[in-house]
Task: inverse folding
């Protein structure tokens, strides 16, 4: 049986090492490399070397492909002191990754060298549990969850489209959800507008929507706008948001959302439904068409029910 | 259904992964339970995002724009025939 010392020596023979200063210079030059922190998530949470992704040693072989699709891309691994990561690097070499190096002395020596670290704002224990299933999804992970928690989405309309959208965004932990709707809850809404309850009849829709969402996920800050979107308020409201979701029910609003989003460079996730049909697309300024590319002019009144 | 597609697209865009529904129109018909995808192209003559845009601010939405709140130009482009048939050209 091999001793740990022998295993480490063996790994060091096949894995090149580099020091913190060398890695820092590479990162500063913007060299294409994949930096992987192989420590456990709680160690990563306490501070990491930006822009490292966290894939714990135990999951490395299973998840490395999500960080490094190309087996020839330069990969740098680090752990706390450089021991776990040298063994991990050897395992990656055996998997066929050709260009793997180990950060000598690990995170500890990096910190002792006075180099900068990054630290994400802590998630509380409830959040870690609530979003744990997101953490297991490679493309989202803890980093993606933080992005969601820091995101601001404006939802136009709290009706048939906006109801399920708001539910899912709130459950997923989108940190700020602006909800705009000038209408009040009517009994005829309840068969499809699932944000509202029977006891909400007569209340502003944004009020019952806010209540429903807060009950679902206290992490979400709801900003209610109990008004209709108009040319007078659109620019001021839009500018605070990262993304706009159009769940409106009329052409006038759709053109207004489209134009304002395009002019402010905001992406507009568009959807509409009519009876049993629906459609969805994303209008991203200058990356694809806009709503006016689809509908240069609005249909004449009466032809198309909105 | 469509609301869920919108939520999913929003999450993808915010986190930054996957293929967003840009330049693609997803249509859904609940009766036949059919999904279709239509490729969309930018219209070079689009009054907003085309090569010579005429809409540079939101003034056409101002009151007194003569009931033409959304309509612009006089280039003779007609309204689409039906709500679910976008005027943009399918790109194959
Ligand atoms: Zn356009």
Result:
């Amino acid at each position: 049986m091999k001793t740990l010392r022998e295993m480490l020596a063996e790994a060091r023979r096949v894995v090149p090492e580099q020091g913190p200063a060398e890695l820092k210079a590479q990162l500063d030059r913007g060299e294409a490399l994949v930096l992987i922190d192989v420590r456990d998530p709680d160690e990563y949470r306490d501070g990491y070397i930006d822009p490292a992704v966290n894939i714990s040693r135990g999951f490395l072989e299973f998840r490395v492909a999500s960080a490094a699709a190309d087996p020839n891309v330069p990969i740098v691994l680090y752990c706390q002191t450089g021991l776990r990561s040298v063994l991990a690097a050897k395992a990656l070499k055996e998997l066929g990754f050709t260009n793997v190096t180990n950060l000598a002395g690990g995170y500890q020596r990096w910190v002792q060298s006075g180099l900068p670290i990054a630290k994400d704002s802590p998630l509380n224990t409830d959040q870690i549990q609530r979003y744990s299933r997101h953490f297991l999804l490679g493309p989202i992970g803890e980093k993606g969850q933080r992005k969601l928690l820091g995101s601001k989405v404006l939802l136009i309309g709290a009706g048939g489209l906006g109801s399920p959208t708001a539910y899912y965004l709130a459950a997923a932990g989108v940190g700020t959800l602006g909800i705009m709707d000038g209408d009040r809850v009517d009994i005829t809404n309840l068969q499809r507008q699932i944000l509202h309850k029977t006891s909400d009849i007569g209340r502003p829709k944004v009020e019952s929507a806010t209540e429903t969402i807060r009950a679902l996920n206290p992490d979400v800050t709801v900003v209610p706008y109990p008004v209709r979107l108009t040319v007078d308020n659109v620019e001021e409201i839009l500018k605070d948001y990262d993304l706009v979701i159009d769940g409106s029910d009329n052409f006038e609003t759709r053109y207004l959302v489209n134009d304002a989003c395009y002019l402010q460079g905001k992406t507009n996730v568009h959807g509409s439904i009519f009876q049993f049909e629906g459609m969805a697309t994303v209008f991203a300024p200058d990356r694809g068409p806009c709503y006016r590319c689809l509908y240069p002019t609005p249909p004449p009144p009466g032809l198309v029910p909105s | 259904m469509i609301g869920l597609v919108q939520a999913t697209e929003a999450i993808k865009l915010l986190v930054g992964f996957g293929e967003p529904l840009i330049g693609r129109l997803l249509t859904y018909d609940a009766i036949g339970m059919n999904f279709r995808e239509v490729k969309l192209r930018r219209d070079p003559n689009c009054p907003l995002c085309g090569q010579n845009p005429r809409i540079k601010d939101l003034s056409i939405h101002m009151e007194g724009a003569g009931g033409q709140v959304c309509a612009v130009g006089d280039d003779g482009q007609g309204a689409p025939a039906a709500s679910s048939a976008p005027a943009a050209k399918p790109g194959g």
About this structure: The longest helix of chain B spans residues 2-15. Chain B has one helix and two strands. The longest strand of chain B covers residues 24-29.
